[in-house]
Amino acid sequence: MGEDPDEIAAHTAAAMERADAAGRGAGVRLLDVAPGRARVGLTVADRHVNGHGLCHGGYLFLLADAALAYASNSYGTSAVASGADIAFLRPVSLGAELVAEAVERAKTGRSGLYDVTIRAGAEVVAEFRGRTRQVPGLPPPA
Predict the structure, then answer these.
(1) CATH no. for residue 40?
(2) pLDDT surpasses 50 at 1
(3) Is 101 within a domain?
(4) Between 5-19 and 57-72, two packed helices, what is the crossing angle to 10 degrees?
(5) What are the backbone dihedrals phi and psi of residue 124, each rounded to the nearest 5 degrees, phi first?
(6) Above 60 in pLDDT, residue 131?
(7) Is 108 a domain residue?
(8) Which part of the chain is the Thioesterase domain (predicted)?
(9) Domain range for residue 13?
């Protein structure tokens, strides 16, 4: 791995994607990554809907958390979520194409703060704020 920040972000994201059984099982797709930023996608399928026929909020949280993970690990140092909250703004229907975009807002020492916007097309359906902590003893994704 070189010292180019974009190369580090891409290499780390590829390793995380290979190891992320939960995201893969849910249908999360990595769309792009850069230092402190990431975009992931999900097509809402039958397995994602709740008893109202709408995308279950847990999957929206999982999608936002995946974007947070790629963005916060994009520097090549292992980071994990230390907390997060989400606001569900609009219902999401079966078949919707979701994109979650994470943007770093602050990074101080080992702590980070990220905002993630989830859209279905041009419509914002949820806003997520995540906090991360770099974990020195945790091996980085290989």
Answers:
(1) 3.10.129.10
(2) no
(3) yes
(4) 140
(5) -75, 125
(6) yes
(7) yes
(8) 52-123
(9) 5-134
Q: Is residue 127 part of a domain?
A: yes
For tokens 């947070």, the residue is 68
**Model confidence over 65-105: pLDDT tens digits?**
999 999 999 999 999 999 999 999 999 999 999 999 999 99
| Residue 110 tokens, joined | 């080992």
Confirm whether 126 is domain-assigned. yes
SS3 sequence of 2-64: CCCHHHHHHHHHHHHHHHCHHHHHHCCEEEEEECCEEEEEEECCHHHECCCCEECHHHHHHHH
Longest alpha-carbon distance in the chain: 49
At 137, the pLDDT band (50, 70, 90 cuts) reads: confident
Query: Tokens 């907390």 sit at which residue?
Result: 83
The residues with which 127 forms a beta bridge, in sequence order, are 87, 117
